[in-house]
Design a protein that fits this description.
single chain; mainly alpha; Nucleotide Exchange Factor Grpe, Chain A, domain 2; 4 domains; three-stranded antiparallel β-sheet
């Protein structure tokens, strides 16, 4: 830069300082209003190409005699701030959309997990109820056996030349079987199992099974005359239907009664076959139980021998160390 240019810039700077000291201070809001209105006599009065060059390079303020406020830089910063605000707003919107999608996915996963948990709970409850009913039915089978034995022992009548000791033994056995039967009924009642009455009532196909038919004209049609097998409720559900003898005075019943002798013989054979099957099943269960006990004893014996051998080996190893 030559000396003439330096002198020119120095003169302009002195003039600017003198004008800045003498000119009144104009608020920034008034400058912005004047710039927006395009007041030629205001802020941009006397603005030339040289002034624009000076503003761009930062050598002089906007307009001759204006206060020391760089409006161009201010507008540039406001525009940059506006762009940054738009960018931040766009990023915040994207973040909110991501959070909304994440929360929706979380709600969906939580609802699915709740539905799966409820379904598993229902399945487990149904499985447990089914297993419980199966166990209760087995207990009812045991109760039928106990009741049959109790009735047989209690109804035993020895002959004239019978042994008194046997009769006393059977009486004691009937008493013990009756106590066991009452105890089993108490256990079943605590678990919600209760019997229901069916004798001298009208036959109900939902809770009863007509195992046999009889014809008694003195009794009403469809009345239960006897109970062959007791029925039970589990809480409010039918656990086992009752097998009953139903009164049916009709042509079909008379035809059945015509061959009563053969029916009784068949029934005796069926009862004997069922009794033989029950005894065979009991013997099989007892044999399996004994075999299982023997196997458990053998396993315990082998385990004891193995533990004993391990202790001996441990003792020998300890002695060798010392």
């Amino acid at each position: 830069m030559d000396s003439a240019t330096k002198d020119l810039l120095t003169a302009r700077f002195r003039a600017y300082l003198d004008a800045a000291d003498e000119a009144p201070e104009v608020p920034l809001a008034d400058e912005l209003s004047a710039a927006a209105a395009g007041d030629a006599t205001g802020v941009i009065s006397g603005f030339t190409a040289g002034d624009a060059a000076g503003v761009l390079i930062g050598e002089r303020p906007f307009g001759a005699g204006a206060p020391a406020t760089d409006l161009f830089r201010l507008f540039a910063e406001v525009a940059a701030l506006k762009n940054e605000v738009k960018l931040e707003a766009r990023q915040v919107k994207l973040a909110l959309d991501d959070f909304r999608a994440l929360f929706d996915a979380l709600d969906t996963a939580q609802a699915q997990a709740s539905a799966d948990a409820e379904r598993r709970a229902e399945q487990e409850h149904a499985s447990a109820a089914q297993a419980r009913k199966a166990h209760l039915l087995e207990l009812l089978e045991l109760r039928d056996r106990l009741q049959d034995g109790h009735e047989r022992a209690a109804g035993y009548r020895g002959g004239w030349f019978g042994s008194g000791d046997a009769a006393d033994y059977l009486a004691d056995l009937a008493e013990h079987l009756g106590a066991t039967l009452r105890r089993l009924d108490e256990v079943l009642a605590r678990h919600g199992v209760r019997p229901f009455l069916s004798v001298q009532r009208t036959f109900d196909a939902q809770t009863m099974h007509a195992a046999e038919l009889a014809a008694d004209p003195m009794r009403p049609e469809g009345q239960v005359l006897a109970e062959l097998r007791k029925g039970f409720f589990y809480e409010d559900e039918l656990l086992r239907p009752a097998e009953v003898l139903v009164n049916q005075v009709s042509q079909a019943a008379e035809e059945r009664l015509a061959g009563a002798g053969e029916s009784r013989a068949e029934r005796r054979r069926r009862e004997r076959a069922e009794q033989a099957e029950r005894k065979a099943y009991e013997r099989q269960v007892e044999a399996e139980h004994k075999a299982r006990e023997q196997q458990e004893k053998a396993e315990r014996r082998e385990q004891a021998l193995a533990e004993k051998a391990a202790r001996k080996v441990h003792q020998r190893t300890g002695r060798r160390r010392y």
